Amino acid sequence: MSISPENVSFDEDSMTVTLSDGRKISVPLAWFPRLLHASPEQLAQVELSRSGLHWDVLDEDLSVAGLLAGTPDLTQRVVLSA
Questions:
Q1: Global confidence as pTM
Q2: 34 neighbors 22 (Cβ within 8 angstroms)
Q3: What is the pLDDT of the chain when averaged over all its residues?
Q4: Which of 3, 18, 51, 72 yields a CA-CA distance of 20 to 30 A from 79?
Q5: pLDDT tens, residue by residue, 44-54
């Protein structure tokens, strides 16, 4: 069975994704800086696919698998070396 996103909504601090199996995942926008700093108009330009969510205007892609695993945006991490 493939679980896909059916709807996405936002409030000040979080994004909620409704899945095809009835679950809802709510994650903090702080996990995804591009979404956190986007305008409501940009957030509304989401494309839902079988495996995730895509914002062309924001160059952001989120997978259902990553959301279910609780994985934040790893591309914005700063690596400090000793």
A1: 0.85
A2: no
A3: 91
A4: 51
A5: 999 999 999 99
CA distance 30 to 44: 18
Q: How far apart, in whole angstroms, are the C-alpha atoms of residue 72 and residue 15?
A: 12
Distance CA(34)–CA(39), nearest Å, equals 10
CA neighbor of 3 nearest in space, from 60, 73, 66: 66
- Give the single-character DSSP code of 65: H
First to last CA, the chain: 45
Q: Find the Cα–Cα–Cα–Cα dihedral 65, 71, 74, 79, rounded to 10°.
A: -140
The answer to whether the beta carbons of residues 43 and 56 sit under 8 Å apart is no
Domains of the chain, first to last:
5-69 (3.30.2020.40)
- With CA atoms as reference, report the closest residue to 62 among 44, 79, 49, 81: 49
- Could you tell me the two tokens for 43? 């957030």
Q: Name the one residue in this structure whose structure tokens are 């509304």.
A: 44
